[in-house]
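User: For a benchmark we're assembling, each entry needs the component sequences followed by a predicted structure for the full assembly. Here are entry 17's components. Please fill in the structure.
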Amino acid sequence: MQVPSTEPLARNIDARSRADALHDRIFRRTLKFCALLVLAALVGAALSTLWGGREVLFGHGLHFLSSTAWNPVEDDYGALAPIFGTLVTSLIALVLAVPVSFGIALFLTEIAPAWLRGPVGAAIELLAGIPSIIYGMWGLFVFVPFMSRIEPALSATLGKIPLVGKLFQGPPLGLGLLTAGIVLAVMILPFISSVMREVFQTVPTRLKESAYALGSTTWEVLWDIVLPYTRSAVIGGIFLGLGRALGETMAVTFVLGNSYNITSSLLMPGTTISSSIANEFNEAVGTHRSALIALGFLLFVVTFIVLLIARLMLRQLAKREGR
Amino acid sequence: MSSNTAIYVRRRITNMVAMLLGGFATLLGLTFLVWILWVTVSNGISAITPTLFTKITAYGAQGGLSNAIVGSLIMDFTALLICAPIGVLAGTYLAEYANSSKLGATIRFLNDILLSAPSIVLGLFVYVIIVLPMSNMTHGAISFSGLAGSVALALIGLPVIVRTTDEMLQLVPGTLREAALSLGVPQWKLTMQVLIRAAGSGILTGILLALARLAGETAPLLFTAFGNNFMTLHPLDKMASLPVAIYQYTNDPNPAMHAIAWAGALLITMFVLALSLLTRLIFSRKKVSYE
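Assistant: Structure for entry 17:
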């Protein structure tokens, strides 16, 4: 009997493993290309808005950043009023949303019975799922009239306090910085509270039980043990909410009144970077359009920095856990 | 002794106040949820009529939203067709090839930033790289288009898919990889036929989440797809979409238009919330099968 030669088989295997290696290389490159597209999207967003806004950013330079004028007729643009509106509404949103989110996280991790945590947590997260245009409609048709009934009372009480009072004096329009800030607060609430809830749960049970064994109350455990342990991640979650608030468009556009104002009163209408772009972009031409894209570039840079800080802060806790 | 009692009382009162405030905060959050949903449902349901689905927006207050619904469906699913393959492959790269490399860490980090980047800036990005060049090349014959709108929406969905794919693949046990590799399976086959299948339901969850997210977006569509009062199926035409139509109708002073806007708002909200319910179902089933 003749023994069949193994040579063709060996050659076959050789060819096959060469083909496999080639396919692997092609596959790997395709995957890498797709991953790099994510990078390209971010870099592209920055560069394209820089390019689109170059006429105003480089042509007007510092004047664009320091002027309060916004005059499409004379092509004179300053970003100060939209920047002011963006910062003030986001700040109001944070001041309101952070304590409430903290309360929700406290309720969901320490107070609520186990059977209630799932449904209530899911319901709060549902708030994040509602499209921002719905927040805008609800804000305009329901919340603005509601605020215009409340605002006289605000002016009469908080408005009487020296120094702080100025913030709450003004016509009860319903529209304005305060209303926009409150709507934003509701929108970012689920983001901040879900981060807080998640990181509170990462605190080792041993640590909490030790504190309870020493006689601490629930509140003391949360304030003196849980919060210090998760501080960086909590700040990260707050910055994440801030990043959302800065860039939010539709909800704010409807309830802000869109006027280029810098006022001491929170009841006055204002404008934000994103709502200026949304309102004016399709009617704008030439320098006006360039100014709006330049605003977009500013917004992108600011939110990028805020989100960068957020992610770095969140990562610190993950590192400590060895993740 | 009495000072000790005072401290105990104060601590207990502080604790009780904190617990009460925590419950109150949760109640406040739930109140807003119920308030917003109630307003949407009660205003929307009375405005949902057959004409909503049969007539186009050109008829204004006497019309419906059919072209906007069709436009939204086309753009949402085109966006998904663009971002789902790219997102799944990119997520696979992060999990399987670059899990501990510097490039992988950087992309993962930047993907998280893209996840919460302002959507209006992504709209501007697509305007500058697609709408403007197209308009220059065709001398204004083609400018805003459904295709540009889809690309803008794809940018919203992409980071969601990348992230879930990455996370889901990392949950696949390493023994599965080792078993396949020891049989001499090449890595691309291992990835496509073993890993992606094992993480399948998780990846599908990510795709559905991305759809839920991009379906509600308005800002990136304003200056990419623009809007259209007539029915169009052509991807290079200006295309209507539900969120943009709602935006325009809400800005209209006519209350009859507001009613149509509410009906559209109800449609979007139902769609998005149904999707998130569906993802929860898929995910809970997955958990069972893993245990």
